[in-house]
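Ex. 9. Protein: ABC transporter domain-containing protein.
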Amino acid sequence: MIELEDLSKRYGDRLAVDHLSCTIRPGVVTGFLGPNGAGKSTTMRMMLDLDSPTGGTVRIDGKHYRQLHNPLRTVGALLDAKAVHGGRSAWNHLLCLARSNGIPRSRVGEVLDLVGLTPVARKRAKGFSLGMGQRLGIAAALLGDPRILMFDEPVNGLDPEGIHWIRTLMKSLAGQGRTVFVSSHLMSEMALTADHLIVIGQGRLLADTSMADFIARNARSFVLMRSPEQERLKDVLSGAGITAVPGASGALEVSGEDAAHLGELAARHRIVLHELSPQRASLEEAFMRLTAGSVEYHARTGTGG
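Predicted structure tokens for ABC transporter domain-containing protein:
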């Protein structure tokens, strides 16, 4: 478990992390979201004592990171896949980490096989592609078989098979009762991976809730209804106290009602439906709505003058 209590980090006049408090619990994949410049990377660096907080504290299983004996056995982290000596082979890079933390040499081969790098284990890391570098970083995070795992943009550079693999791996690790904390800008992937979300903007906590609750609270869901008797359908809905608004291509949009109930209502009045489809809000829509006021860098459409 990771506990953040009133955590703050200031760089000159800029408050990068602003009195952030939350708990990352074991047994679920917790997603860490926020716009660029929100303070995600700074927060993760403070968790690992790579940056010192201006205020507040971080505890990992009740201790500061610096107090952990052989920390790779407790916390495995991928923050920067390029943090490797390019002249070392994948095998030697992991072996150095293993020896520094009292990890058996046999574990090196195990994690290389797990991430699919056994065929290139003796090749120098400087020749690795972006995806291969990511796999090596993931292997380093898994090396100590830790109870807590932190990943910053873990799917960066991975092909579709690799993305599916890391998603399945993170869910499996959480299923074993481990703490899994992952930051990513890929909303579609986060929606498939995370069970719980922590969202920050401009260094402040915006949400700490389950994936389902986050989407339900911050985005609109509705039922799309289309019929050759559209006006009659609208009258029937209105008579039942249900508000329908015009939607795309002449369809009706109904919010706050169950699709099955709407279908049964139309059937009772012998109204033919050509479409009755629940439209679920996406994580991306919910995220954009919640963080609209916290975006630091705004791009413009068009090419400019």
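Check your answer against this statement. The domain at 222-279 is CATH 3.30.70 (Alpha-Beta Plaits).
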